Amino acid sequence: MDIATLREQHPDHWKLASAIRALAMDAVQAANSGHPGMPMGMADVATVLFQKHLKFDAKAPKWMDRDRFVLSAGHGSMLIYALLYLCGDAQVTLDQIKKFRQKGALTAGHPENFLLDAVETTTGPLGQGISTAVGMAIAEESLRARFGKKIFDHKTYVIAGDGCLMEGISHEAIGLAGMQKLKNLVVLWDNNNITIDGRVDKACITDQRMRFKAAGWKVLHCDGHDPEDIDRALTEAQKSNAPVFIDCKTIIGFGSPNKADTYSVHGSPLGDAEIDATKKIYGWDHGAFEIPADVKSTWEAIGARGAAERGEWEERFGAISATKQAEITRMMDGGVSKKLAGAIRKFKKDNSEAAPKVATRKASEMVLGAINPAVPETIGGSADLTGSNLTKTADLGVFDPENRKGRYVHYGIREHGMAAAMNGLWLHGGVRPYGGTFFCFTDYARGAMRLSALMKVPAVYVMTHDSIGLGEDGPTHQPVEHLAICRATPNTWTFRPADVIETAEAWEMALTTEETPSVIALSRQNLPTLRTKHTNQNMVSKGAYVIEEAEGKRQAILMATGSEVEIALKAREILQAQAIGTRVVSVPCMELFDAQDETYRRRILPAGAVRVAVEAAIRQPWDKYLLGERGRETKAGFVGMEGFGSSAPAPELYEKFGITPEAIAEKVKSLL
Amino acid sequence: MDIATLREQHPDHWKLASAIRALAMDAVQAANSGHPGMPMGMADVATVLFQKHLKFDAKAPKWMDRDRFVLSAGHGSMLIYALLYLCGDAQVTLDQIKKFRQKGALTAGHPENFLLDAVETTTGPLGQGISTAVGMAIAEESLRARFGKKIFDHKTYVIAGDGCLMEGISHEAIGLAGMQKLKNLVVLWDNNNITIDGRVDKACITDQRMRFKAAGWKVLHCDGHDPEDIDRALTEAQKSNAPVFIDCKTIIGFGSPNKADTYSVHGSPLGDAEIDATKKIYGWDHGAFEIPADVKSTWEAIGARGAAERGEWEERFGAISATKQAEITRMMDGGVSKKLAGAIRKFKKDNSEAAPKVATRKASEMVLGAINPAVPETIGGSADLTGSNLTKTADLGVFDPENRKGRYVHYGIREHGMAAAMNGLWLHGGVRPYGGTFFCFTDYARGAMRLSALMKVPAVYVMTHDSIGLGEDGPTHQPVEHLAICRATPNTWTFRPADVIETAEAWEMALTTEETPSVIALSRQNLPTLRTKHTNQNMVSKGAYVIEEAEGKRQAILMATGSEVEIALKAREILQAQAIGTRVVSVPCMELFDAQDETYRRRILPAGAVRVAVEAAIRQPWDKYLLGERGRETKAGFVGMEGFGSSAPAPELYEKFGITPEAIAEKVKSLL
């Protein structure tokens, strides 16, 4: 639909949409940076969505039964900021719109969930929004099944562009959503045929409608500038039994006389002259950032549309039992189940006595056997490695279209999609997600794992097969740099437990934070229980601790993690037999150790002894402990990997790469 | 087709295929580790492919006009090992088959290109093979256009499983291949409906045929156990004008009476009893690893099938000019163009005089302007950020279906697919690939970038917008841990040049190695030319060097990279003004510095001075230089990032995070 027709036939709609467009142009111009083209293109769709379909109350952005709105094409952030301002969001004031992309503004370059309550998820890295939304839709299905549709009955709407759909992660996400028949998920495709490099067909000729159909979605389409047609499609979307893909044909930079339908309007300000010309075409006779009172009040009425519905919901919520209310509220707030601490304590006590010799991946399965009954909000899963990651416990049914009460997701061979869905599960609320794959395939999930850290999502990544200890599968499957990668990532806890007890403690830490994702790196090979003396204290919470003290004068300190702690303890025996007093420090989590006070850190790693770190991985993260602090001399060494691994049985690889008690003892002696 | 019919109607084929199946079962059993199900399922397809379609000569696995065969489902490695042994490959002896997955064997758990000549690419991480193959097909199209189909006229065949097709990277790869109309690419889908977690539809209901059709592929199907039907499909594939997807319906572990068509045959040995029972069903009355002479000789004849065709090709190749022969041979061998050194030298000389103040991404574009005419084998590209990465020079036409001579690929918004395609371009031979995206989106390409390193592919990753210096786009786009990630990865050169001269030197290094991928991290913001005194020597090749010496007694050493070298030089001015003698060391590539001899390293970083490292990224990779070597005391500090970035104009972010000349000077003084 062209502008003249639109203005004539839908004058009220036109004004509402023009307000979005004008704000987008003005804010990008003021910032001299940003992406005006997308908000200008999708303003009509967004207006109809907010005016007629989205269930929300602008005054209560955290209302738990709201529809979720995800701007997957996050560069078009002015679309959501304009909508929030116009609807009367408490945080997004006109001042914030004017400070778009400036230091300290809540209106950051891309929408950030940690800055604005109404931003459901940080978007910007393409493809993440649509994939995170799949997790939100799973969470809603799960909670609806468990608590009833009087409490949970909402949809997740996504606006996605060509970038989102070209990214590989979108394939994983739409495949998962299609299989799961997530009828509560609606994706609106901003089909404008433009990317940064030019017209889409320069790089992509994919028939997106056919593609979504192939993945099991219901496919609709509309003229993205015709409010009636948009409304028709959105209305039809409500009746689907599968996730819905709506192809919205739009023009990027709609109305800009010289830049519409070109990539030049994608990521740059239009310039004052072009803004003036565009506003003239819009019939928008107002200064920069100026919204006429009637338009603003109509928008505010839209923002208040859901207030009555929310009131009814509050009544329904108030009518359920106080216990259930408290439980739902705790789960939605991400609080810790009171039963967890006791379950972990009992598990530790039992297992320090039983002292099983098991792989830490098996230990993790055992711990989950204690956790999952005590923590009803966990939803586990694996990227098609259930029997290897050992993430499924007996009590978890499988979440699928026939059993929405199941708490285990077969994510398929979709590591990245799984990680993004885990983000969505948490961001929706009510769920603590964990999911497994081989540690090496952190590589495939990095994009979403980084967002877990940035968005403060305490997802738990159960990463098994954590070193050359996996053996025959060889270097493509053997992580060597991945501990360094996880430790390099801000706000990420990287656990590498040494035995069943440390595994339990790592899980306890991972499940009691509300803002930090955890990577738990677990062995394929069996390891003895080292902590056979029970303590209620969570030693992993300290990050590092003395697991075996030196006898006699302390000449050496060995630091190790995971499967190498056992090897370090054997090295200690060799050294002690030669009267070299040797302390062994287990370092299950560097981030937590670094967060301890200096007194504790110096107590664990005192000056004056030779230090050798042992880890079947590269040295980079260890240098900080091998470095003497501020002028303190330390002779130090490292026993680990210098390059990629190799294919052979695990014990032979440890020999080949020289990660043995003997080699460690030799290293210590060479430094004394 | 069932086994009884197959044995009766195609007895000769059956014996050939049985040989593959028997070897797969025996080798996995002997190793007590591996994946027999896939080779057993795809033996018929592979037999027909090798016997009737694949152009190859087992005695000349590096013949440049051979068809490429990629086992994307690399866990089924015994399929390719069995084929190679049976065809008479010089490396894969029966002894190697017996040593499958053992220490030192060429027959590693997954096929490794660096172990076997006939393995075109390392596979194992799912989805990589099919995506790498797209690069191989592009290389063939490009070379055919440039040198004629008498020299280059071959196909790339891929065997892919459900895992490969579920991974996101496959979406990027098939989208790219479809748009590029790569008719020389044929994917054979092992459609066995089984993954590790069970039946495929537990996680995926995608209609793969429709999906490939949506991406512009020609779609065929066949009974994967009927040799005539397989042959019909492969024959039809020859006539396509688009890439071809053949849905081969197969049964995993075909013939195993108790395990066929179940996941239990996917990744575990069958056991002796089941092997005996299976061989009975096969009518295979031979001991473990035993291949009857007639079967072996038939297979060896298949291995020699292409010898005559290769002879004809050798004649054609011999008939072209000696210059052209030499050029093609050099390009296929990966040798360096003789014109490169001169072009770089001239560029450096010109620019040390002109001393432009440009972003290093712009500097990179300028260098490419000198490189691309001198190095005809480069094929550049970008993941839809051409105008941001500045990877396209004027002389490069666009490679697309209408212009196969173009040397620039619009990869689309497909970072992972781009990286894998770059691997394929190099592995095919004849091409030096480079490609760009934002440095932060290393995250999206990690899977393939790791394989560049493992496979020794000297791809060049042009990673612009390398720090908070990109400004307003905010933390999702601002790398902080990515330098650490690249530096942690074995066999990867991470360059962060400080000015136009270092940028040229980094490019020279990247283009003269035949075994190491390079990441060149480049600034968005302008930087002055620091190296205004020309030298022919490539200083970046040393990894680190003194860019400004201390005046007076050397009390401090500042180390910095990229955009922070300028800041360190300003800090030096402050310190020198206070009579604190300060050396500034530019560290454009840690890996190359660490490879220098100790004398050089000590000369650049001598003992006795305070050391402060400056980089707008996290500290992890720097600790090794802040650590005094073996008992040498060093007071050291770091000025950089401790967490994620933020959205604001770049200069304000440098202030906010305290990466300023003043902060550096203060840090030095606090340590003195």
From TrEMBL, chains A, B:
Comment on bound cofactor: Binds 1 thiamine pyrophosphate per subunit. Binds 1 Mg(2+) ion per subunit. Can also utilize other divalent metal cations, such as Ca(2+), Mn(2+) and Co(2+).
Residues in the signal sequence: none
Cofactors (names): thiamine diphosphate; Mg(2+); Ca(2+); Mn(2+)
Alphabetically ordered keywords of this record: Calcium, Magnesium, Metal-binding, Thiamine pyrophosphate, Transferase
Record EC number: 2.2.1.1
Catalytic reactions on record: D-sedoheptulose 7-phosphate + D-glyceraldehyde 3-phosphate = aldehydo-D-ribose 5-phosphate + D-xylulose 5-phosphate
RNA-binding among keywords: no
MF term (GO), any: transketolase activity
Family named by the database record: Belongs to the transketolase family.
Assembly behavior: Homodimer.
Name of the protein this chain belongs to: Transketolase
Organism name: Thioclava kandeliae
